[in-house]
Amino acid sequence: MRPPILVTGGSRGIGHATAASLAADGRHVIRWSRSVRATEGEGKSTDTHIIDQTVDVSDAASVTRAVAELAERCGALSGIVVNAGNGTWAGLAETSNEVWARTIGVNLTGAFLTIRSCLPLLMRGRPARVVALASDSAFHPFAGRAAYCASKAGLVAMMECLRQEYRASEINVTVVAPARVDTYFGGKRPGDRPQGLSAAAVGRSVANVFKQPDEVEVREIRLASVLDRYGPGDRQEAR
Ligand SMILES: NC(=O)c1ccc[n+]([C@@H]2O[C@H](COP(=O)([O-])OP(=O)(O)OC[C@H]3O[C@@H](n4cnc5c(N)ncnc54)[C@H](OP(=O)(O)O)[C@@H]3O)[C@@H](O)[C@H]2O)c1
Fold this sequence. Notes:
This is SDR family oxidoreductase. The protein is of the alpha/beta class.
C-alpha cells in the first residue's frame, strides 16, 4: 500500500468528495479541516481508509503540530491535495483588512505552510504528487473579488516554483482550476448553484490524477460545467 494522501479542507465540498474518491480507489487518506462536522452525509468518517485531523491551515503552529503527529503515525505521504479555501466577494475599496488577511491567510499562506511542512514526508513517500485547487479566477480575474483572485494567482505561481524545485525529486505538481462548483463555498449550500460542477465530479477528476503512471505529470486541469453560463468569456449571471 502506498503512503497516505493528505487532503486539506476535507470536511465538506470538493475536499470531502476528493477524499471519498481516493478512498474508493483504495488509497489511505488524511483529511484536515478546522471542524470535523457531519453535514448531510458528509463529516466524520467511519471508513477505515480515512483519518481526520483538526487543523487550521492558516495557523503555523496548528500545521506544525498536525504534521508532527502525521510523521509519528504514517512516516510518509504520497501526495497532498491543497484544497482548503475561502472567499468573500467585495470590490477592492470595500475589502476589509480582515477579509484580505483571511483570504490570503487560508488560500495562499495556508497552502504554503501545508506544503513546506509536508515536504519531508513527501520526500519519504516518493514518487509523490501535490495537487492544488486554484480557480478560474487565477487565470481570469473577476471584478469584485480582488483578494480571492490574488490568492489563487499567487497559489498558481507558488505551485510553478514548487514544480521547478522538485522536478528532479519525483514530486509532480498539478494545478486544478475549476469554474463554479456547487458546494458550501461562500456561505452557499449544495443545490444553490445547480448549473455549476458537482463536488463529486471535481473530486473524481482530482483522484484520477493519482491514478496516472508515476512518470506522468498532469500539469493543469481546467474544469467547467457546460450547463453554466458564468465564467471567462460568458459572464451573464451573478455567481
Ligand atoms: N466552489 C467553487 O465554485 C470553487 C471554484 C473554484 C475553486 N474552488 C476552490 O476549491 C476549494 C474547496 O472549495 P469548496 O467549494 O469545496 O468550499 P467549501 O464547501 O466551503 O469547503 C471548504 C473546505 O475548506 C476548509 N477550510 C476552510 N478554512 C480552513 C482553514 N483555515 N483550515 C483548514 N480547513 C479550512 C473547510 O472546513 P472547515 O470550515 O471545517 O475548516 C472545508 O472543508 C477552495 O480552495 C476553493 O477556492 C471552489
